[in-house]
Amino acid sequence: MEDLERLSNAASVPDWDALVFEDRVHRSLYTDPRIFAAEMTNIFGGTWTYLAHESQIPRNDDFITTHLGLRPIIVVRDAGGVIRALFNRCTHRGATVCRREAGSAKVFQCAYHGWTYFNTGALSGVPWPDGYACDFKDAKYNLAQLPRVESYRGFIFGTLNPEAAPLADHLGPMTAIIDQWLDRHPGGRVVLCEANRLKYKGNWKLAYDNAADGYHVKFSHRSLLETENRLKTGDEKGMSFYKDAPDEAPMYVQYLGNGNHFKDKRPNIENRPGALWEIEGAHPGMESFEAALRQRLGDKADRALDLAASEPVNINVFPNLSILGNHIQVFQPLAVDETDTTWYGTAVVDEDGELEGAVDDVNALRMRTMEGFPNFGEVDDAVNFEEIQRGLAAQEDEWVYMHRGLDVPGRIESDARGVITAPATDEVFMRETFKYWKRLMAEPPPRQIRREV
Amino acid sequence: MSQAPDPSRTSHYVTDAFYAALVEDFSDWQTDDKAVRDRDLRDSCRAFLEREARLLDRHEYDEWLGLMAGECLYWVPATTAAGDPRREVAVCFDDRRRLEDRIFRLKTGAAWSQVPVSRTVRMVGNVEAFATAAEDVLMVRSNFLITEFRAGESRVLSGWCGHRLRRLGESFEILVKQVNLIECDQNLRNPSLVL
Question: A419: closest CA among A408, A407, A432?
Fold first, then answer.
């Protein structure tokens, strides 16, 4: 273990109490490169951070490359089956040792001077070792890696904080919500597939703030709501329940601790097979595949069709994961004003034959429904995030407000677990998330790296 | 006699067989042995693509939709090999109805990703035509450069298109337009433009 405390936050520490209030935060949280730099250590890696999904590395020696904050990372299932998060950084001079996005490899060899590492991170060898007087068995020559990597039902998280609570404890009441999302699928699992990949010129928190925001839908997504209902074929489609009085609808927003929040729109929809499919907007192949599925499955077709419909939840795991609809969306900060949001598609697997051979048809439909929101919804949000970033350039107008619902009697409820529930358009989830954000920034968690010994 | 379903309202033609044919049609089509040598035919393909580019640059979307066959596809793959759309999402995968959705959305005035609207100029070049098994159907490859100006910033989008065209008298209709952005598998900023 190597203690990194001595390296962190040597410069002046901001007065967080002057920047984060109950009802508002300072614009610099979104615009100041120094705050961004601190987030990239204290938050991304300081707390449990989503890294990858196990279905991306199904076999031993499989790997993907990603980032933890700004650190280049190789997530690998090593030769012994252990999932590791290696720093993609040669211990010699610092070059990345893996330059592919995904693949299978027993070793990683640096392209610069040929230092070679096993996929456990241990140094395998260096060219012409007799030119060195050192002992290459010293662990300091092995790749750095995260001291803690844990999965919850396929979702791989990592942290540099050796004292972090076990992942399942950290997720707390979120685990039951993730369970529900998974358990609607045969075998209780999904596999990742290709993604809709978007980028915006704005701070990463703008996307996370938006992830449970029920207030923006009618306005930011006006074009989507109009488009989904342009043909007026029976039921109102898509997110029409946001149209009139969203706070009076049965849907709700919840804060579940540690920056995690949940928007649950399922109560708006009748709890019976087929109800979700009935409100799905129009997508390619809907009528043809529905007819084929009904012919093949009879009464069971409704359940299969619901698997192709967009699950009406937003499950947001701080700081960078949002499971929404059938997507696994990942937020990747690149700079204080640049963020990638990658909307991984998920496919249904049916090893036990629950879907009686219809799984390919379900997935063919599901691919099309998943394209809907990134194409006709998220692009408008992303531009609104960019326009926030432009607006926040006004230095003297300092505050960003998130006080919708604050101090309104009878609006917000807390239960014995500390879970906070509020109407759909409430901003309580943002207020609570910023409290957690402030704690991580004001009292940075310890960070350590580990090397194979 | 039953009437054929209106592809603007329902999606009956996107079937498993449609996908299978699509994957087949877009495999191994750009080969020298299938290249069309007839200059007049190649020239009419080029003229058709230039007209298409003009309509899009001028935001004449209804006229552009008029170039598409009734049962058409506008396809922007998210992977360089395009793959099988039954198993992967695409940047765009629009049948006739979704394409009309796309145009409808742009006209709502509330499609913020296109408010203000993008100004574009498109350069279409390297046009090559290839024969298919069907006498009246051609595959056409072209390269494109789109300079886009929007909200104070300019950028260039580039790539190549595969058009599957059916001859229609002296002109063509578009059965499939496949747009291959060179950065198709990377994170794309505001991909709301019709390519």
Answer: A432
Indicate yes or no: CB of B112 within 8 angstroms of CB of A342.
no
If you write DSSP's letter for every residue of A277-310 in order, what string do you get?
HHH----TTHHHHHHHHHHHHGGGHHHHHHHHSP
- Hey, is A373 helix, strand or coil? helix
Closest approach of chain A CAs to the CA of B65, in angstroms? 17
Q: Which long-range contacts (CB under 8 A, 24 or more apart) does A18-25 make?
A: A20/A434, A20/A435, A20/A437, A20/A438, A22/A403, A22/A406, A22/A431, A23/A401, A23/A402, A23/A403, A23/A406, A23/A431, A24/A399, A24/A400, A24/A401, A24/A402, A24/A403, A25/A399, A25/A400, A25/A402, A25/A434
**From B93, B105, B112, residue closest to A284, measured CB to CB:** B93
Contact at CB, A285 and B15, closer than 8 angstroms:
yes
Contact A148, A166 (CB under 8 A): no
User: Is the Cβ pair B191, A198 closer than 8 Å?
Assistant: yes
Predicted TM-score (pTM) of this structure: 0.96
Q: Provide CB contacts within 8 A for A392, sequence distance 6+.
A: A27, A30, A31, A400
Cα B192 to chain centroid distance, Å, stands at 14
For residue B135, the distance in angstroms to the closest alpha carbon of chain A comes to 28
Q: What is the pLDDT of residues A365-399, one digit of tens each?
A: 999 999 999 999 999 999 999 999 999 999 999 99
Predicted complex: ipTM over 0.90: yes
Q: Which residue has the tokens 């089956």?
A: A81
List the one residue out of A303, A327, A300 whose CA is nearest residue A315: A327
**What are the residue ranges of helices labelled H in A60-184?**
167-171, 174-183
Task: Collect all residues of chain B within an 8 Å Cβ-Cβ radius of residue A364.
Answer: 16, 19, 85-87
Q: Is-contact B113 A382, C-beta < 8 A?
A: yes
C-beta separation of A422 from A121 below 8 A: no
Query: A310 and A370 in contact (C-beta within 8 Å)?
Result: yes
Listed by number, the residues of chain A in 268-297 with a beta carbon closer than 8 Å to a beta carbon of chain B are 282-289, 292
pLDDT digits (tens, 9 = 90+) for A192-234: 999 999 999 999 999 999 999 999 999 999 999 999 989 887 7
Interface contact A198-B94, CB threshold 8 A: no
Which pair of structure tokens corresponds to residue A265? 């729109």
Contacts of B190 in chain A (CB under 8 A): 200, 379, 382-383
- Which helix (H) or strand (E) segment holds residue A251: the answer is none
Given A194, A288, A340, which is nearest B12 (Cβ)?
A288
